[in-house]
Amino acid sequence: MIRKLLTIAFLGAFLSSVPTVSRAAEDESLDPYAKETKEQRDARMKWWREARFGMFIHWGVYSVPAGTYKDKKIDGIGEWIMNRGKIPVAEYRQYAKQFNPVKYNPDEWVKLAKEAGMKYIVITSKHHDGFALFDSKVTDWDVVDATPYGKDLLKPLSEACAKHGLKLGFYYSQAQDWTHPGGAAWGEHWDKAQDGDMTEYIRKVAAPQVREILSNYGPLAVLWWDTPVDMTKERADLLLPLLRLQPGIIHNNRVVGLFVG
User: Fold this and answer.
1) Structural domains in the chain?
2) Residue 208 burial by CB count (10 A; 0-12/13-18/19+): exposed, middle or buried?
3) Which phi and psi angles does 103 have, rounded to 5°?
4) pLDDT at 27 over 60
5) Bridge partners of residue 56, in order along the sequence
6) Quick one: what percent of the chain has pLDDT higher than 70?
7) How far apart are the C-alpha atoms of 165 and 68, rounded to whole Å?
8) 60, 127 in Cβ contact below 8 A?
9) Which of 153, 205, 150 is nearest to 177 (CA)?
10) What SS3 state is found at 146?
11) Does residue 101 contact residue 150 with C-beta atoms inside 8 Å?
12) Edge-to-edge, what's the strand order for the sheet holding 250-251?
């Protein structure tokens, strides 16, 4: 367990080198930080620049197949197995029936991170497969409704971070969603169940879920958007005003347009 968590930690330190201030359509978008002064930005970024070392955790249903589909090793990183293996939506959803992390101990995770000198944790609230680690009211494709575990995974982590003095952030895949109709997919859709209107997906799934994660887990330090496939300014503007729910939060430049700084 310790070795695995330290591996995740070093990955997090690497990923966190990506600039964390959005530059997407900066003067025209509804990003609440688009017009902040240098002094205001420096004040908001101060803790991040000083923290430097944190833990970035990828976790979800993809841990069940663990990189193997139909007895074949799928190339690429494990959380992309649905896309790389072109697994149909209905078939992929069956993995959730085996996702039952009964040994989950967020207090232990946070204490280990703190002992290693980390100052923050960022975890995947929802990755590209559309599966939420929290109790979302807009879908049943989440840990509470779709798995035998049946409990929110983010709430106890937020409580452990507050208890031990680490800042908490959430990764959220705002564009790619390979399970909900209308969600984007790198390359193209491979299952008719994925087809739909992306703007409606943002309105009915992504935006409400971002509101949920920014409203229900106490103070958050980071919101990490990812891979803006088919994102536009108009779609981003359905999401960016929600950042006001967490004044001072840092978000990265992947909401629309850029992949790396």
Assistant:
1) 2-251 (3.20.20.80)
2) middle
3) -95, 5
4) no
5) 122
6) 87
7) 38
8) yes
9) 205
10) helix
11) no
12) 54-57, 120-126, 167-172, 222-225, 250-251
pLDDT for residue 11 is more than 70: no
CA distances (Å), 46 to each of 41, 79, 155, 227, in order?
8, 32, 26, 26
- Write the burial class of residue 107 (CB in 10 Å: 0-12 exposed, 13-18 middle, 19+ buried): middle
131 vs 140: CA distance, rounded Å: 9
DSSP 241: G
More confident residue, 16 or 53: 53
* 106 within 8 A of 114, measured Cβ to Cβ: no
Q: Where are the beta strands (DSSP E) in 95-220?
A: 120-126, 167-172
- The amino acid present at 225, given as its one-letter code, is W
Q: What is the mean pLDDT of residues 54-69?
A: 98
pLDDT of residue 19: 36
Show the beta-strand stretches assigned E in the chain.
Answer: 54-57, 68-69, 72-73, 120-126, 167-172, 222-225, 250-251
Greatest extent of the chain over all pairs of C-alpha atoms, in Å: 55
Q: Residue 86 corresponds to which tokens in the numbers above?
A: 């072109």
DSSP-derived 3-state class of residue 93? helix
Closest CA to 180 of 219, 146, 150: 146
Dihedral of the alpha carbons of 99, 103, 106, 107, in degrees to the nearest 10: 170
pLDDT of residue 28: 54
Residues 36 and 16: their CA atoms lie apart, in Å, by: 22
Q: Are 125 and 224 in contact (CB under 8 A)?
A: no
Phi/psi region, residue 76 (left: phi>0; alpha: psi -120 to 50; beta: rest), is left
Q: Which residue carries 């452990």 as its tokens?
A: 160
